[in-house]
Amino acid sequence: MTFLIQQTLIYAVPLMIVALAGVFAERSGIINLALEGIMIFGAFAGVLFVRLMQQAGFYVDAKAAGDWVALQGFMILAMVVAAVLGAIFSLLLSFASVNLKADQTIGGTALNLLAPALVLFFIRIVANQNTLQMAEGDAASYFMIKKSFFGYGRSEEMGFFGSTFIDKTYLATYICIILFVILSILLYKTRFGLRLRSCGENPQAADSLGINVYKMRYAGTTISGALAGMGGFVYALTTANCASTGEVAGFGFLALAVMIFGNWKPLNIAGAALLFGLFKCIAASYTSIDINGDGVFMLAEIGVSPHLYRMLPYLITLIVLAFTSKKSRAPKAEGIPYDKGQR
Amino acid sequence: MKERGSTLLQKEGTKSVLASLIAILIGLAVGAIIILIVGIFNPSLGIKGALEGVQLVFGGLFSTGRSAAGALTFGFNSTNMGNMLFRATPLILTGLSVAVAFKTGLFNIGAPGQYLMGTAATLILALSIPTSVVPAPLVWVIAFVGGCLAGAIWGCIPGLVKAFLNINEVLACIMTNWIAANLVTWLFDNGSLFANLQNHVENTKTAYIYKTSFNGVQTAKLGLDKIFPGSQVNGGIVVAIIIAILIFILMTKTTLGYQLKACGANRHAARYAGIADKRNIVLSMAIAGALSGAAASLYYLSGNTEFYWTSAYQSLPAIGFNGIPVALLAASHPIGVIFAGCFMSMLDIVGLQLTNLTAYNEYITDVIIAIIVYLSAFSLVIRMLISGHKKRKNAKVQTVAATTEPLPADTPPGTPPDTPPDSAAVEEGGGEA
Predict the structure, then answer these.
(1) Span A204-217, average pLDDT
(2) What's the alpha-carbon Rg for chain B, to the nearest Å?
(3) Domain range holding B111?
(4) Nearest CA of chain A to the CA of B222: how many Å?
(5) What ipTM does this complex have?
(6) Which of A100, A124, A125 faces B378 most closely, judged by CB atoms?
(7) Element (H, E) at B63
(8) A319–B contact, CB cutoff 8 A
(9) What is the DSSP string of A92-131?
(10) A180 lies in a domain?
(11) Per-residue pLDDT tens digits for B342-388
């Protein structure tokens, strides 16, 4: 059970935060199809930062002394770098779709093509192979929270809560959850959030009330880029051992699906992300899931092909959408370039 | 293109072509700049390596390797030319697939999935039907049609859910892509239905399917191998061009084509005019799927290509996605797709030459493609700039248009890339970054 919850969270949290990234862009009226590309770019930026800092000799002392507070700070710094570079990368999309009134779907597709190509090009040059890894050590030894930090011995138990939510988890997961809550409040309970959402529903009306639609759309897409970049790094950190390979296994697109499934509302998105995290987790590790703890690996013993489990998240998305899509309501003005002269 | 076509139409056409050429030129220039910057800051490459890289980006198609002195040599290279046509075959068809959907107002990002389903159906049919009973050419036809049908069925799914359940087709396409990836792996994996098609003759290989030539089925060469000796080219390119012309006729000369385009222009207006919009959306996606399936069929029926998969599918076939830039570059025009497809495969060859001859890698050509797609997103703006230039004789735009005239592919072999477009682009690239 502990394993199942931890694994589900690892898959669900990047989905959740990137889906929220999609919400910020679409609520401001820009379709952000580039989530996948920005994730890839953010993952690369974060991993490269970690690698360069390690090579420069920072944090070697902290690692040797076991100073886990400093190491967690190092990880947060890498998250910030990924977010900033993700935001900068997303400016390409906002420039094309806000200033040049380009087709947002094509612009997003271009970014999706550009990110893996650029990233692989530089990974080959930097690392002379197709994967960019940490310079030394692995993600778990550097950034994972362990019970020993809190004075627990090797054989001591932390209790169900402790062993599930503290031992062997990443702080990044909880930072993302906190950010998710804060940003949801920002979107729904503040003046800025109301203005942002109005630009995605009726930009002409918003403009007539003195709101700068272009600025709001830039803001929405930039926040979206920052969140997606950070989500990409968190994905690489927690599931790919802090390595960048020029892909995030379709997570950006899956986040887009989660966003539509969640009807562009944060609470629904959190639920949808948990559901897909669960299915992803089952697909990835169905052989070692022991649901009720009796030592019987039920899912492995049914004898269904592993390919079916891998197909399941996508199949379920399609089926669930088939039932819910009639009710789904996208922001009215999304995808339409705002033109001041238009009525 | 047509004598009786109005001058306005011709102008629109030339504008589209010009916009695409500008996009290509800027894309190549940005690629060259990245190569230069990386070369200057990377001591192992140096300026000399960087300049060689730039030379290859513009003239890689005509590269003939290195001379004894270590300098790059250029000239007519029949292997590169033939391989360009060979690689263009599936690109033209996936490009058509995306273009047809675009004309109906749909974004077919599902080409990779349709391509995979076409691959599976083609391979299963071509390898399972014994050529001792059925003549090989007939098996070829059956496998080709089977591939198209499998693609069409897979394309129908996003079309159906879009038309009847109002699910965003982009989303449905992405989901069907990954479902197809896992389904195809499942079909060929150990212990599955078609595991007997795995290549066990060459036992150094795992997770490979037999080439179709193992069963004696392969596309006729049609004499093209005589023109381009040493390359993989075959009759598939002829089939692809014929299909492109057929699609052109379908879209411009038939009622169905008119209805599809009407749905793309305004779905509600089309329905008001009595056009069955839902039926047309499904039909458009089915045609798109069939074209992607045909791409896979022609690629694998060539007889010297192998299908490879890994037990956990992590990535989708790039040929499917590359149909999107092809269609965008051609502005969804079926005849334009032929040339755009050839251009994209030329970039592929350039990437190979870069990997083989310099310390750079093939991903720079993907960067160039991405930049071209990005620029074609606002081709409308570029077109407006062009028409503005014609009216106002804007000096700045004039220089941009002037630099487009020498097409990089047409530059005579051996000549170093022209400096004027390069230096002009340095400024533009600087502005963008």
Answers:
(1) 91
(2) 23
(3) 84-327
(4) 35
(5) 0.83
(6) A100
(7) strand B63-66
(8) no
(9) HHHIIIIIS---HHHHHHHHHHHHHHHHHHHHHHHHSSS-
(10) yes
(11) 999 988 888 888 888 877 778 888 888 888 888 887 776 777 777 66
